[in-house]
Amino acid sequence: MDQEIINKVLEELRKKINIESSNSDLIKSTATEINSIENLKSELQEEKLIEKEEKRGVHMVNDIPTITEYVGCAIGDTVGLVIANIDGYLHEKMKLDPKYRSLGIVSARTGAGPHIMAADEAVKATNTEIVAIELARDTKGGAGHGSLIIFASEDVSDARRAVEVTLKDVERTFGDVYGCDAGHVELHYTARASLALEKAFGAPLGKSFGIIVGAPAAVGLVMADTAMKTANVELVTYASPNDGTAHSNEIIITITGDSGAVRQSVIAAREVGIGILKSMGQNPVSTTKPYI
């Protein structure tokens, strides 16, 4: 029903009520009619608001507004988003390849290693490129990092799929992150490194790769030493609070080599790191379920 017509009917009904009449039934009936039309007017206005929101990509799910850019969320205060067609000025500032217009974005308050490992699986499964991996000084006040990972693709469906794969795999990659009030130990392993690990750490493509993290930093240093002495592995990167991290209270090393050797080194580092935190009177526990 057209709103102008509704307004005219309301005006006429109000005039009727203003006329003095001894017929109380008529007044009650008229008031009821006004009520019904007022309700209809409200419904019409709500429908128009919904149409307006839908036009700009907003809809409601269980009374919670969501937008088309939203893909999902995961452990670690992680959110996954997608931009179908990035603004031209941003595209230029971000120095993106002209062929890429769509971006998949994963950002987290807690966790960097788990997200990079999950993103590494995502680029293996999709036609995307990793254009940025940045570590933020975050962990909601803890000793470690948050993270920002950006995928780029020619087709928005690829960017969205990369984000979906990452969000799903983060549950697994958090399995060997052990936390407590005193600090944390974090371990990651893959038999075949891909583009995300190459972007973040310079990992040799296609080779076994491990990440070893300990906080506070002293724990990380002992873990690193243990890992290097345990098996014949090659040190790829070393990062400390003032060099290679976002001033986090960690020491982080990455290693490569034979698959069995890398895995053995990671496991040895895990045992010594957890042992040190326990000796501090803490009980570090896995965030989800260990996978190494």
TrEMBL record:
<dbReference type="InterPro" id="IPR037233">
    <property type="entry name" value="CcmK-like_sf"/>
</dbReference>
<feature type="domain" description="BMC circularly permuted">
    <location>
        <begin position="176"/>
        <end position="290"/>
    </location>
</feature>
<dbReference type="InterPro" id="IPR044870">
    <property type="entry name" value="BMC_CP"/>
</dbReference>
<dbReference type="InterPro" id="IPR000249">
    <property type="entry name" value="BMC_dom"/>
</dbReference>
<keyword id="KW-0175">Coiled coil</keyword>
<keyword id="KW-1283">Bacterial microcompartment</keyword>
<feature type="coiled-coil region">
    <location>
        <begin position="27"/>
        <end position="54"/>
    </location>
</feature>
<dbReference type="GO" id="GO:0005198">
    <property type="term" value="F:structural molecule activity"/>
</dbReference>
<feature type="domain" description="BMC circularly permuted">
    <location>
        <begin position="65"/>
        <end position="174"/>
    </location>
</feature>
<dbReference type="InterPro" id="IPR030984">
    <property type="entry name" value="PduB"/>
</dbReference>
<dbReference type="Pfam" id="PF00936">
    <property type="entry name" value="BMC"/>
</dbReference>
<protein>
    <submittedName>
        <fullName>Propanediol utilization protein PduB</fullName>
    </submittedName>
</protein>
<dbReference type="GO" id="GO:0031469">
    <property type="term" value="C:bacterial microcompartment"/>
</dbReference>
